[in-house]
Design goal:
Elements: H1 2-13, E1 20-24, H2 26-37, E2 44-48, H3 56-75, E3 80-82, H4 94-102, E4 112-113, H5 114-127, E5 139-142
Domain Serine aminopeptidase S33: 1-150
InterPro entries: AB_hydrolase_fold, Hydrolase_4, MAG_DAG_Lipase
Protein name: Serine aminopeptidase S33 domain-containing protein
Length: 151
C-alpha cells in the first residue's frame, strides 16, 4: 500500500512521465504485487533476482516448518529463526561480498525473524492466488542460474 500511495502521489505531480518499477530480491516480490494490484500505474516492470518463491530445501520442509513457524510468530514475532544469509551467497564476486560485509547499513548479522519469513511466504502465496491480476505490461526478469537465495 505504501508503494502504491507513493507512485500515485508522484504520478499526480508528473503525469506525463513513464513509470517503470525496478526491483531486486525481496523488492521484486513487493514490486510484483504492486504491478499486479494496480497495473494502470506502471508502464513496465523490471525484476532482478526477485524473491518470488522459497528455495527448494525450504519448500521440502514447508509442510512441517510453516505451521510451527506461524505459532512462533504469534508468540515471539521477533525471534531470530535463522542466523541470516551467508555472505558468500550474496554474490559470486568476492569484491562485492567484501563491500557487502563492510557496509555500515548492512544488518545481515541480525538474522531472519519469524515475522519476516511468515510475512514473505504469505505474500508469495497471495501472488499466486486469483485475487491478483496477471501482469500484462512490458516485463523484464533477470535471474542468475546459480542464485542460492531467491527463486
Amino acid at each position: 500500500d505504501d508503494l502504491l500511495q507513493l507512485v500515485r502521489s508522484l504520478s499526480s505531480e508528473r503525469p506525463n512521465l513513464k513509470r517503470f518499477l525496478i526491483a531486486h530480491s525481496m523488492g521484486g516480490l513487493v514490486a510484483t504485487g504492486a504491478a499486479s494490484l494496480a497495473p494502470e500505474l506502471f508502464d513496465g516492470l523490471v525484476l532482478c533476482g526477485p524473491w518470488l518463491d522459497l528455495d527448494d530445501e525450504t519448500k521440502r520442509q514447508r509442510p512441517f516448518l510453516f505451521p510451527l513457524l506461524r505459532i512462533v510468530n504469534r508468540i515471539l514475532p521477533k525471534l531470530v529463526i535463522s542466523p541470516g544469509i551467508p555472505a558468500e551467497n550474496i554474490c559470486s564476486d568476492p569484491r562485492i561480498v567484501a563491500q557487502y560485509l563492510d557496509d555500515p547499513l548492512n544488518c545481515a548479522d541480525t538474522g531472519v525473524r519469524a515475522r519476516l519469513l511468515v510475512s514473505v511466504v504469505d505474500y508469495q502465496d497471495k501472488l499466486r492466488s486469483d485475487k491478483y491480476v496477471k501482469i500484462s505490461m512490458p516485463l523484464l526478469v533477470m535471474h542468475g542460474t546459480a542464485d542460492k537465495l531467491t527463486n
